[in-house]
Amino acid sequence: MNVTETLSQGLKREFQVVLNAADLKSRLDDGLQGLQGKAKINGFRPGKVPVAHLRRLYGRSVMSDVLQNAVNEANQKIVTDNGLKLAFEPQIRFPENKDEIEAAMEAKGDLAFTVALEVLPKIELADLSDVSLTKPVAEVPDADVDAALERMAGQNRTYSNKGEKAKAASGDRLMISFVGTLEGKPFDGGTGEGIPLDLGAGQFIPGFEEQLEGAKAGETRTVKVTFPENYTAPHLAGKPAEFEVTVTEVQAPEAVKIDDELAKAFGMESLDALKTAIREQIGRDFGEQSRRKLKKSLLDALDAKYTFELPPTLVEQEFASVWSHVEVDMKEAKKSFEDEGTTEEAAKADYRKIAERRVRLGLVLAEIGEQAKVQISDDEVTKALVERARQFPGQEKQVWEFYQKNPQALAEIRAPIFEEKVVDHLLEQVKVADQSVTREALYADDEADETAEAKPKKAAKKAKKADAKGEDKAEDASA
């Protein structure tokens, strides 16, 4: 096997590999001899099938394996001899000349093929001793605890019959039965019996609840609505419908009581214990938000420290992922780029910068984690996998088996764990000062602080939040 580098341009490399006919024949003969002891062919005793006969029967199949093994061997040799870290699997280009391929398959001619690579850049780690970060910290306001108690009490609110002549008002609960029609014909899912409806809660199709205000028990009304364009049932989306709605009972909400009995309904011994639990939960939420903002500041600092060439294919893949979110959100919002004060070309340029930032930070975090020898234990992966499975009640076993059988999917579980460990490692190297802030400041829109500001903001909110939360590419790059 003869390997020659033919291109070294930026992060792109190409090598020509030549397998001469003698080498191919030797490999083919070895493969056939290995098959000789295993083949069971009528008319021959085990192990006594002539190699020439095996070659006629299985020569092309064995040669296919020979070529695949040769390609793998060449790839490994190129990576090892040149000390390369690959961004992607090597791309193999065989000759277009069919006669040349055919001669190689018969081990009667040399085979030359090209191995095209895209490598990861070499990253020199920056000194972070001059980095100073501020960690926003907020105390849990009593008002937040009280508001949570009000919501919980509302969930346990009881209702009582207002009477036959009472009119329904916002905040009341109606018991209704209905039959829906499209163009005068009933449709699947359009019928309901004994359904509770809380007026003003926005539980039903827009416009449905408002048309029942003032209704009395026993009254029937025709409610006309139009299903939203993004309705979950495609056959109903955007279509006008009519519902014959009968109100069977009008109920008024009773006064909410926030006391020990409410606490017991939620499994707590007393109201004080419930308040303590609520405060602790809000405190954990504040802590997670504080961590997110601190991490965002750290990523911004890292982004300012590093400039290097990025693997083009990695950037293209990341951009495609970001842009797909933009297109979906624009479609759901029924917005155009002109509506957002920009053009598609300008938006693409802005989001490409976000993709480049995410790839750059992912590579930096991977290099830092590798040099710091950051490890992820099996227990940590198992715990994360259990949490993921719990997100799909009733399907836990299927989810578990899916990840166990799909290494790439399991890598998506490992990547965030790896990234958070690298972030912890980095936070030990920089200066971090706590800063007391209000709840409002803690949860202020992160978009205002984006270093890679882009439009349309609303359309790509998901993409931007993903960027602010982290790159989640670190372990993939280090693999």
From TrEMBL:
Q: Which InterPro entries has this protein been placed in?
A: PPIase_dom_sf, PPIase_FKBP_dom, Trig_fac, Trigger_fac_C, Trigger_fac_C_sf, Trigger_fac_ribosome-bd_bac, Trigger_fac_ribosome-bd_sf, Trigger_fact/SurA_dom_sf
Q: Look up the EC number in the record and give it.
A: 5.2.1.8
Which catalytic reaction applies to this protein? [protein]-peptidylproline (omega=180) = [protein]-peptidylproline (omega=0)
Q: Does the keyword Isomerase apply?
A: yes
Q: State any single GO MF term.
A: protein folding chaperone
- Write one Pfam family the protein is assigned to: Trigger_N
Gene3D superfamilies in alphabetical order: 3.10.50.40, Trigger factor ribosome-binding domain, Trigger factor, C-terminal domain
Region (Disordered) residue spans = 443-479
Give compartment(s): Cytoplasm
Annotated Gene Ontology cellular component terms: cytoplasm
Bias type Basic and acidic residues, positions? 465-479
Q: Which key words are in the record?
A: Cell cycle, Cell division, Chaperone, Cytoplasm, Isomerase, Rotamase
According to the record, the signal peptide region is none
Q: Where is the PPIase FKBP-type domain?
A: 171-256
Give any single GO term for biological process. cell division
Instruction: Give the family per the record.
Output: Belongs to the FKBP-type PPIase family. Tig subfamily.
Query: How does the entry describe the domains?
Result: Consists of 3 domains; the N-terminus binds the ribosome, the middle domain has PPIase activity, while the C-terminus has intrinsic chaperone activity on its own.
The record describes the protein's role as: Involved in protein export. Acts as a chaperone by maintaining the newly synthesized protein in an open conformation. Functions as a peptidyl-prolyl cis-trans isomerase.
- Name assigned to this protein: Trigger factor
Q: Which organism is it from?
A: Bosea vaviloviae
**Gene that produces this protein:** tig
